[in-house]
């Protein structure tokens, strides 16, 4: 849960990869300590470029990105080195193979810890702890490149989590993963967030954005065009159409039902199948069940 203290401030950031080109167009954005935020938007809208600015991997041409560490200390991504920043903010690449380069899993995790000066005993503790958190204990001495793609993604996340940054940024962590692996990855991030850390994830999976995160930031053509809780952002049809985003399917069903059905089924907008199930079940407890519904297991007040 967020505590309303800013942890990152992005102020009027402009950026282009090549002279004369513009990818980010004056972005203003603040992230609070303890938030779990997803950044969404169509391909090429600038999501990765924006998130790489948070970690200092890219520096703004104009404007500034400031990180606050909670003790009153602040870091400017243009002034401070990536090593100084990496103790406070970590970035997990979209493709884990862009990040992994050791031939042993524990050494891969240890590399970042050595870089930020963690002493050997503590390194060992942290390695064990993140291997457990990411369910990779049995692979500790194995070669990262013999892992499945999902396990490699978890290793990439583990290497960053081991450094215990205040903020972890993950770029499309579930792309190419099956449903079970995608949930495992999101659960790892959720656990980290539950321990008070800030998580910023780029995703194209609206279902996961809706289910896991407190706040959705919508990027289009290098600027933020919407920002709010998923239950609000996914109702703003015009913004979604403009940015070519479709809300989760269950949310679309809820929206259509509200528009077209006179029945008062929805207590609040559905973001997950569980939300829908709960409302439908409670609706059928209030109203006489239509013929056949009880047989299909939704029940009625007399059941
Ligand atoms: N290294 C680079 N050099 C030049 N242009 C780049 C580079 N990386 C990205 N771009 C361009 O910047 C724009 C924004 O790209 P970015 O990867 O930030 O978008 P994105 O929203 O993350 O896209 P996707 O969802 O496809 O990953 C695109 O036009 C892209 O072609």
Would you kindly provide a brief summary of this structure?
Pfam families: ABC_tran. With 303 residues, the chain is α/β, with parallel strands linked by helices.
Summarize the structure in words.
It contains eleven helices and ten strands. With 303 residues, it is an alpha/beta fold. The chain has two domains: 6-239, 3-Layer(aba) Sandwich (Rossmann fold), CATH 3.40.50; 249-296, no CATH class. Helix 3 packs across helix 4 (120-133) and helix 5 runs parallel beside helix 6 (179-194). The longest helix has 16 residues, at 179-194. The two termini are 38 Å apart. Mean pLDDT is 90; it is low at 297-303. The structure holds adenosine-5'-triphosphate. The site of adenosine-5'-triphosphate (ATP) has 10 residues, from helix 1. Residues 8-246 form the ABC transporter domain. Its main location: membrane. It comes from Halarchaeum nitratireducens. Pfam families: ABC_tran.
Keywords, please?
2 domains; six-stranded mixed sheet; disordered C terminus; 303 residues; four-stranded antiparallel sheet; Rossmann fold; alpha/beta; single chain; binds adenosine-5'-triphosphate
Task: Outline the fold blueprint.
Elements: E1 6-15, E2 24-32, E3 36-40, H1 47-54, E4 62-68, E5 74-76, H2 82-86, E6 89-92, H3 105-115, H4 120-133, H5 149-161, E7 167-171, H6 179-194, E8 198-202, H7 206-212, E9 215-220, E10 223-228, H8 230-233, H9 237-242, H10 249-260, H11 273-286
Parallel strand pairs: 3-8, 3-9, 6-7, 7-8
Antiparallel strand pairs: 1-2, 1-4, 4-5, 9-10
Helix pairs in contact: 3-4, 3-5, 4-5, 5-6
The structure holds adenosine-5'-triphosphate (ATP).
């Amino acid at each position: 849960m967020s505590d309303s203290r800013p942890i990152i401030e992005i102020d009027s950031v402009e950026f282009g990869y090549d002279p004369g080109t513009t990818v980010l167009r004056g972005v203003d954005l603040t992230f609070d300590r303890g938030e779990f935020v997803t950044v969404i938007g169509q391909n090429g809208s600038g999501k990765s470029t924006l998130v790489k600015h948070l970690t200092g991997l890219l520096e703004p041409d104009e404007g500034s990105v400031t990180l606050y560490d909670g003790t009153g200390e602040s870091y400017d991504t243009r002034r401070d080195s990536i090593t100084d920043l990496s103790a406070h903010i970590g970035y997990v690449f979209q493709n884990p193979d862009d990040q992994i380069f050791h031939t042993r899993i524990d050494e891969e995790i240890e590399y970042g810890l050595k870089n930020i000066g963690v002493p050997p005993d503590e390194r060992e503790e942290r390695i064990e702890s993140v291997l457990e958190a990411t369910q990779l204990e049995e692979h500790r001495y194995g070669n990262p490149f013999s892992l499945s793609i999902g396990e490699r993604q978890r290793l990439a996340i583990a290497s960053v989590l081991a450094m215990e940054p205040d903020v972890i940024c993950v770029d499309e962590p579930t792309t190419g993963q099956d449903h079970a692996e995608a949930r495992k990855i999101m659960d790892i991030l959720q656990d980290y967030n539950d321990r008070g850390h800030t998580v910023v994830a780029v995703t194209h999976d609206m279902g996961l954005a809706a289910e896991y995160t407190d706040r959705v930031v919508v990027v289009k053509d290098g600027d933020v065009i919407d920002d709010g809780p998923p239950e609000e952002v996914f109702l703003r049809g015009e913004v979604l159409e403009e940015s070519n985003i479709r809300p989760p399917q269950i949310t679309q069903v809820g929206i259509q039902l509200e528009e077209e059905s006179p029945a008062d089924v929805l207590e609040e907008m559905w973001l997950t199948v569980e939300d829908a199930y709960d409302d439908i079940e409670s609706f059928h407890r209030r109203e006489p069940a239509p013929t056949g519904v009880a047989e299909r297991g939704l029940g009625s007040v007399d059941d």
